[in-house]
Design goal:
This protein is α+β, with helices and mostly antiparallel strands. It has seven helices and nine strands; from the N terminus they run αβαββααβββαβαββα. Strands 6-5-4-9-8-7 form a six-stranded antiparallel β-sheet. The protein is elongated, with a radius of gyration of 29 Å. It starts with 10 loop residues before the first helix and ends with a helix.
Length: 257
Amino acid sequence: RLGRAISADEVPAAIEALCVPDVATDAFLTPEERDKLQGRGIGALLAIPLLVGERLIGVVDFRNPQPTAMPQALVRSMRSLGDQIAIVFENQSLLREAQANANQLTLQVRLLQGLNRLSSGMSGFKTERELLNYAAETLKTGLNVDHVGIALFEPREDHGMVVSEYPDHKAVGSRIETRNSAMIQALRAEPEKPFIAENVPNNPMIEPETRAVLEQIGVVGLMVMALNISDQMVGTVGFDLYDDDRHFDFVTARDRM
């Protein structure tokens, strides 16, 4: 029926072109469909399926306001055109997928190169601050985020402290609630799973103290990974986004890390 989605088991029936030379007299149409087409000023209709193998990816329809004869030669030509359109769409889809995979691979390589430089050059850093700053810059560049912040927890205290960030937003030294933080509790419960917040200003799991620091920087999207040493959570790394149109997802986070 016109205007209805086609399920997978109906695909074989949708493979053939639909020819309606005269909407007013065609026996295939229901009265409702005929009224709908005539209400749109359609007197004749030719619908061509777009197929990749046996997979239906879409339909192209040709309309005429007047009844129109549709010889088989015309239908075959339109069907051939539909096949070419389907190939173009499929090639574009494959190209986008390849580009996305290439972009992710590029980011992974860039991150690994940075981490390799970090590990091989650790002896060259004079202070812990220099090392952490370089780590923040490497992660920010490698993951293509807007900002990275590293926080370490104070032993036997209910808070942590931002010890490094890139780029600099004067957040170093800011306190981060840890003991009563739902976000930190979630990270402790599942340390391998990042905490992701798409709407930082309204996320109830982020403590007001932490939210104030993030809003000062301009963060709207956040992904936090736990820093663990000997099964003990000693800090976090936060990956921040400034734009509402950019998003994190767990698969991307897991794969890139």
